[in-house]
Amino acid sequence: MEAAPALGPATGPVTIVEYADLGCPACWQGHPLGILNQLRAKYGDQIRFVWRDFPVITLLSPQAAEGGQCAHEQGKFWEFHDLVYQRDGASEASDLQAYAAEIGLNMDQFNEYVTARRYRDRVNAQQHEGFERGLKGAPAFFVNDQRVIGPQRAAIFEEIIDPILAAKK
User: Fold this and answer.
1) What topology does CATH give the domain 6-168?
2) Which of 7, 14, 89, 124 could form a disulfide with 47 if both were Cys (CB 3.0 to 4.6 A apart)?
3) pTM
């Protein structure tokens, strides 16, 4: 399984990489806007969306990111992600366990991996990658390497995506 959760085919002409933090108010307040779903509905298999953990907002953010990686390994990252954001980023250990149980994760595996910090290196590597790309906060996006900072409307992404797709024709 890929280290980073992704939606859409790897062969799509547009890749949107989001660096975000499950404990970030700007990230989870923007989630109800449904930008990802709007873009996927409009562009379908022409876009790939990749999540990168960038746990820089709260002291609990790395723990939440590691919980998300455990959910990813069990094939339920996006369900975990959506639930955390719907609950305004609550990231205490008991919150993460409740999310994992609610989406049907193997709880023995989840608890073991989170306690052992199995995904710490993966999360740290993604965070370091964000710093190397000059990021200072979340959310931040790269649309085929074009930087978009902060939560945005779908139209902002469309202004970048449409010319890329037009050039591919």
Assistant:
1) Glutaredoxin (3.40.30)
2) 14
3) 0.92
